[in-house]
Amino acid sequence: MENVMMNELELSAIGEVANISLGNAATSLGVLIRDDIDISIPYVEVKKSGDIIKQRTDKSIITRVDYVKGLQGCSILFLKEEDVKVMTDLMMGSDGHGMFYQQELSELHLSAMAESMNQMMGAAATAMGAMLGQVVDISTPQTIHMSAGEYFTETFPEHDRFIQITFEVQMGSMIKTEMVQLYPYILAKAIADLFIMHKAGIQ
């Protein structure tokens, strides 16, 4: 179990980094779906893995991005099935309620999301690097369709705590939804420390 000692300053730092980096990600997504995207100020909290599993029993589209330069660890993003179908339909040039929305979730939808997440999280990593004072690079995103409980049990048996970043998203007139991003606690602490030091001119 991690020694969870993140204070209000560090939580605020995570929120500030998330606000800018996810704003850049949203801009990239807006280009792909050809519509405006607005996001709320992120809400940041420490969550036990057990609580995440209990709260997320339905299947989600889960995207994992590993940091390969500048940071060590990964970011997890949850998307709702309905939202992914609308987003895919928009990316394919339809109106959000066309053929790709009406189809059952398939590899095509996952492929479309992987491509969008690659651009979104790449933009987020670039913005994050500027805020941390160093280059941050990511791996190609891995996108899967499964329940959070199953995913966390298989993927993070050694992690007991995560930092959860929740933000409301408005995609044009089609989608008003909530997205959730998770960092393992150790990575979130590193991001907060680097940001605070860079902002103070120490780094």
What is this structure, in a nutshell?
The protein has 203 residues and is an alpha+beta fold. The chain has helices at 8-33, 49-55, 81-91, 99-102, 107-132, 148-155, 185-199, and strands spanning 37-39, 43-48, 59-69, 73-79, 137-138, 142-147, 161-171, 175-184.
Task: List the main descriptive attributes of the protein structure presented here.
single chain; 203 residues; alpha+beta; Chemotaxis protein chec; 8-stranded antiparallel sheet; 7 helices; 48% helix
User: From the structure provided, what is the oligomeric state, counting identical versus distinct chains?
Assistant: single chain
State the end-to-end CA separation: 29 Å
pLDDT < 50 stretches: none
- What is the helix content? 40-55%
Our estimate of the beta-strand percent is 25-35%
Q: Which architecture name does CATH use? A: 3-Layer(aba) Sandwich
CATH topology name, in short, is Chemotaxis protein chec
**DSSP helical segment count:** 7
Cα gyration radius (Å): 17 Å
The H-level CATH homologous superfamily, spelled out, is CheC-like
Secondary structure category: alpha+beta
State the major sheet: 8 strands, antiparallel
Instruction: Please give the number of β-strands.
Output: 8
Overall, the morphology is globular
CATH top level label: Alpha Beta
> How many distinct folded domains?
1
Q: On the 0-100 scale, what is the average pLDDT?
A: 88
What's the SSE pattern?
HEEHEEHHHEEHEEH
